[in-house]
Every structure is written in C-alpha cells, then in structure tokens.
Amino acid sequence: MNNLENSRRLLAGAAAATALLVFSAGTASAAANCIKGDRKAPYTVGWANIYSVPTWMKQTEGTISAEVEELKKAGLVKDLMITDAQGNAQTQIQHIQSMIDANVDAIVVIAGSSNALDRVISDACDKGIAVVNFDSLVNTDKVTAKINTDSNEWGATAAKWMVDQLGGKGKIIIMNGPAGISVSDDRRKGAQPVLDANPGLEVITETNTEYNVAPAQEAMTSLLFANPEIDGVLSLGGALSAGSVMAFDRQGREQVPTSGENARQFLELWKEKGLKGWATMQPNWLGALSVYTAVQALEGKDVPAFIKVPLPVIDDSTIDGYLARAADFPADGYIYSDYDKALFDKLLAQ
Amino acid sequence: MSAVSSSGWLYGAIQRRRNRSLGGLYLVVAAFLILYAVLFPGILSVGGFSKFTQNWFPLALVTMAQALLMLNGGITLAIGPLVSLGAVIAATTMGTALGVPGGILAVAFVGLAIGAVTGAIVAHLRLPAIIVTLAGSFIITGVALILLPRPGGFIPDWLSITLAGHTPVAFLLLVVIVLAWKAFLATPLGLGIYAAGDNPIGAFRSGVPVEQVKIVAFALSSLLAALAGLFVAAQTGSGDPVIGTPFTLNSIAAAVLGGVGFLGGKGTMRGAICGSLLLSVMINVMFFLGFPPVAQYIAQGLIIVGAVAVPELLAKGRARR
C-alpha cells in the first residue's frame, strides 16, 4: 500500500516535472484550485445537472457531450457521467456525493441552490477533483473555477436599453423568473440602479413566473386586462419575452419595446411583429467551456478562479445573423452565439 | 398474569400480520441495499455510511411527518414549505444572540405552533386537511421568502460537522426518533392517532378525544418537518427559502410506498421509513449503474410501481392458497 502510494507520488512528481519542461514559460507553475496533480488522462467527467428537462438544459448538455467527444478524440476524457437531480437540490447533493464515491476526476455542475451544495463541493475539492461550476453558482470558493456571465449587468443593460427606447419616460412592466432564485434575483437587482436614476420610468407591476412561455403569457394576459397603458416590457428572461409578445398579440394590443433573451421563439416574433427588441443570452456553450476548463486544469494548467464571459448582445443589426442559423436549433430553444477552442483559450487567458 | 400474556400474544399476532404485508417491500429494499454495497463497497465504511444516511435522513423525517398525518386520516401539502421555513429560521437565528440552542428552540416552537394552528383549523372548523395545508403551504413559503429572500444565512461550522460530518450522528438521531415514536404509541394519545384515523366515530365513542388527537398529530408532524429543515440547513451550512419544495411530493410517495393508506389507520411507521429508504437508495444505485437521466426517470417509476405491486401480488398469491 505504502509502496503504491510512493510510486504514485513519484509518478505525479515526474509528471509535474515533464509538465514544467513542456510549459517552460511558467504557465504550469501554479496549479489551479483543487488540483493535486495525481490524476492522469484520460479523465472521467461527471456532469451534475440540477434539472435536465428545460430546452436550455438539453442544449447545454448537447454542448457538453460534443465537447466530451472532442476531448475523447484527443485522448483526454474517457467517460461522461450525467445525473439529473430533477430540480431537487437535496438530490443533487446526493449525486455529487456519489460522484465523489465513484472517484470521478472532474465535476461540472449547475447548482440547484447557491448555498446548499457548498459543503459537498468543498469535499470534492479536498479530494483533488476538478470542480467547475457554471450558470447557477455556488457560494463556496473551494472550486477550480466558476464560469458565468454577469447577471447584474444583464439586468442593468436591459434596463438602460429600455430607458433609451422610452426616452426615460413611460409605464413599464417587469417580468422576472421565479422568486428566490439567484439568477432571477441578480438580474432584477442589476436593473434597480438604472430604474432609480430614471424616475420618469414608472414600474406598474412585476411578475414572477417560471422561465417558460405559457405561465409568462398567462401572467401578461391578465395584466393587459388591468392596464390599458403599457409603454414597455422589461423582461428578464427569453421565454418570458416570447410569452409577453404573444399575450400582446392575442389581445390585439400594439407591441411595445420588449427586452429579452436569445430564445428562438422571441427572436422570430421580434422579426415577425416588427417590434423594438433587444436581447442578450446565457450562452449554452458555458457547458462546453466548463468541461474544457476542468480538463485544462487537470492537465496542470492554471485557470482563473472566476471566468467572466462577456454577454453577447443581439439587436436590430445582428438579429438576422442569428435567425439565419435558426434551423439548427430546436423551435423552443435558444440560438446561441458561435464558439470554438480559440474563444475558450482566450477566455481562459483573461 | 394470563391476561398480560394473552395480550402479548395478540400484540405479536397483529404485528406479524402487519409485517407480512410489508415483506415484499423489505425484500425490495434489502435487494437495493445489497446491490448498492456491491456497486460501492465504501458504503460499508463509517464515512460512506454516514454520508449516505445523511442524505436519507431529511426524507425519512418528512416521511414520518406525512405518515403520522395519513395514519390519522389526514394529509399535508405543507411539508416542503415547512422544511424550507425550518432551514430559514435556523439560518437566520443561529448567527444572532439566540445562538444554536435558541435557533433549535425557535425552529421547534414555530414547527409546533404552525402545526397546532393548522390542526385546530382542520379539527374545529371541520375543513379538509388538503385544502387547509395547501393554503398553509403558500403562506409558509411566503414567510420563508420574506425572512430570507435568497439563499444565505449562517450555520456554525461545528453544528454542520456534528450533524453532517463523517460520523453517523444523523442515523443515530433517526434511531432515537423512531424509539420515541414507539414510546409515544404506547400512550393513549399515540394510540388515539391510529384509532381516530381508522374509525373516528368508534374512537370517539371509546373516549378518544378525536379533535385533540388531530391537533397533536398536526403539531408533531409539523415539528418533524421543521426539524428536517433544521437538519438540511446544517447539512448545507445555510438556509434556502425554497429548498424544501420537492419534499412534499416525495414524503407522500415514500409513505404510500411504505404501505400507508390515504384513508387513515392503515399502515405502519416502519413501512413508511422503509419507503423513504427505497426512494433514497434508488438514486444512488441508478447512479452507480450508470443510467442516463432519461432512463432514470423511467426506472424510478418502474421501481415505485414494482415496490407497490410486488407485496400486493404476494398477498394475492397467499390468499389463493
């Protein structure tokens, strides 16, 4: 046992030395968080999803699987284990615990709760597992890397666009994702300073629904009955915007400036109804980037503890480029911006 | 003397009959546990056992909370929100002057109080439990979101490590709670829960304070759910105002899986706990078998149907013989 341990350590040392030789520029001098250098390619990657059913998640999983296929060809990954906690943060804890028990080399995770996974994730980190957390982030810093766009900026930029559209004056409705969810909370918080600075913008009311078209449409329909005058819809989620536009359409109301996300449905309605629109996105390829980052870290490269991905913006000048690729995406899916290895390397080098 | 031994004989006979209908479930659970141990031998170590039982523990508690009411002829849809509220109260009080003991008392008190009020409404206003607890679930969710609008709060590290570290404290707590339930069943009040659930009029005529029993059942049930929330807060090291939501349905599923009937009086606590164990171990077994998520959904459904159907078929087979 001791011998085995020793020879392992020797091997690790040798590997580290080779790594140093290969990257003599010093890039490998500092290993990334959680990495102990005792894990060798090909790696087993665990993808601990919180909920696999929404289309956004399916598309994200698509980019993860595609990336894993690439890395398999390069001999860096041998297996991908996927779990689906069915929306239950408690189950996700159980899944990550099982991944630790199964001794995977990397865990890629979207957190079902910003705090609930902290302890199990730091356990994984202590075991030398590369943990990369994206989209919905955990609180603990005991991860290899966190990858996300800035939700505050999301809300702030959308609100600024709305202010510009309405000339700083008018009645708006704000559509939020579910209450008590960090992403939806952060987007809303980001919008607040802009709203405070523009008191001419009157917020009639706000909605909280799931990030789905049907509930958003339902919520907006009842609001349309109650409010004869609405000048803009500050929607903080793509499917929400599609629901809102459809509600306006069904009621025969004139479309108003609507912010949103890269949901294919919203982009198509935007073009079709000729409305004033603006959209950003949570790129699905954050999933692929996370797997790539985990493997890079396991290979001894230093990766930033936080990788901020700039928000791609879709406006009237770029929407045609997105709609041209629409056929490649599911009808209820998200048309994400292009990505490649060069982009990933650039993001990792920041 | 002979009276005692004959009642002992009667007790044994009844227990045997109640256990027999659970035999199939016991077999299924045992098979899954063995399969799990084969797939992951680490479960047999103290650390592995501790981690596994910790993930099962809150579900076991809420299943007891649900079964307690179902045995009394009720049901509650407020389990999940109560778990969330328990977690939120723990995470918002333990960092203040109240400290850990104050936080635990606060959680217990709120749990008991909400349960007692709900029970009183159901018992004295004669409203259906399902409606009252549905309304209650919205109110409780709202309160949890007001107390802690987003995940956060504070739980001291030592409490997290004590309850959910590498020691089987959670499992021992479960044993203690089950023993307490056994002891409670030996009291007239405890027996009344079954009696009033099985035959409320008969129980009333035999002198069981049916309404009081109902209030006690609701109070204890809510207490258990809130304590499950306290444990979740300790396990995760923080509070989350929506973390409990999935527990509502899972608690009902586990109780029904464990042979607890919707109409009251039928079923056993040990069956319900076994049901929750099956739901929990199933997740780990499917992971180690490498099932893709889509197959997991289907397998989960099949296992649940199977676990309910096997005992039924066995019973039918016996009846025919």
Automatic annotation (TrEMBL), chain A:
<dbReference type="InterPro" id="IPR028082">
    <property type="entry name" value="Peripla_BP_I"/>
</dbReference>
<feature type="domain" description="Periplasmic binding protein">
    <location>
        <begin position="49"/>
        <end position="302"/>
    </location>
</feature>
<comment type="similarity">
    <text>Belongs to the bacterial solute-binding protein 2 family.</text>
</comment>
<keyword id="KW-0732">Signal</keyword>
<feature type="signal peptide">
    <location>
        <begin position="1"/>
        <end position="30"/>
    </location>
</feature>
<protein>
    <submittedName>
        <fullName>ABC transporter substrate-binding protein</fullName>
    </submittedName>
</protein>
<dbReference type="InterPro" id="IPR025997">
    <property type="entry name" value="SBP_2_dom"/>
</dbReference>
<dbReference type="Pfam" id="PF13407">
    <property type="entry name" value="Peripla_BP_4"/>
</dbReference>
<dbReference type="InterPro" id="IPR006311">
    <property type="entry name" value="TAT_signal"/>
</dbReference>
From TrEMBL, chain B:
<dbReference type="InterPro" id="IPR001851">
    <property type="entry name" value="ABC_transp_permease"/>
</dbReference>
<comment type="function">
    <text>Part of the ABC transporter complex LsrABCD involved in autoinducer 2 (AI-2) import. Probably responsible for the translocation of the substrate across the membrane.</text>
</comment>
<keyword id="KW-1003">Cell membrane</keyword>
<keyword id="KW-1133">Transmembrane helix</keyword>
<feature type="transmembrane region" description="Helical">
    <location>
        <begin position="272"/>
        <end position="291"/>
    </location>
</feature>
<feature type="transmembrane region" description="Helical">
    <location>
        <begin position="24"/>
        <end position="44"/>
    </location>
</feature>
<feature type="transmembrane region" description="Helical">
    <location>
        <begin position="104"/>
        <end position="123"/>
    </location>
</feature>
<feature type="transmembrane region" description="Helical">
    <location>
        <begin position="130"/>
        <end position="149"/>
    </location>
</feature>
<keyword id="KW-0997">Cell inner membrane</keyword>
<keyword id="KW-0813">Transport</keyword>
<feature type="transmembrane region" description="Helical">
    <location>
        <begin position="297"/>
        <end position="315"/>
    </location>
</feature>
<feature type="transmembrane region" description="Helical">
    <location>
        <begin position="215"/>
        <end position="235"/>
    </location>
</feature>
<keyword id="KW-0472">Membrane</keyword>
<keyword id="KW-0812">Transmembrane</keyword>
<feature type="transmembrane region" description="Helical">
    <location>
        <begin position="247"/>
        <end position="265"/>
    </location>
</feature>
<comment type="subunit">
    <text>The complex is composed of two ATP-binding proteins (LsrA), two transmembrane proteins (LsrC and LsrD) and a solute-binding protein (LsrB).</text>
</comment>
<dbReference type="Pfam" id="PF02653">
    <property type="entry name" value="BPD_transp_2"/>
</dbReference>
<protein>
    <recommendedName>
        <fullName>Autoinducer 2 import system permease protein LsrD</fullName>
    </recommendedName>
</protein>
<feature type="transmembrane region" description="Helical">
    <location>
        <begin position="169"/>
        <end position="194"/>
    </location>
</feature>
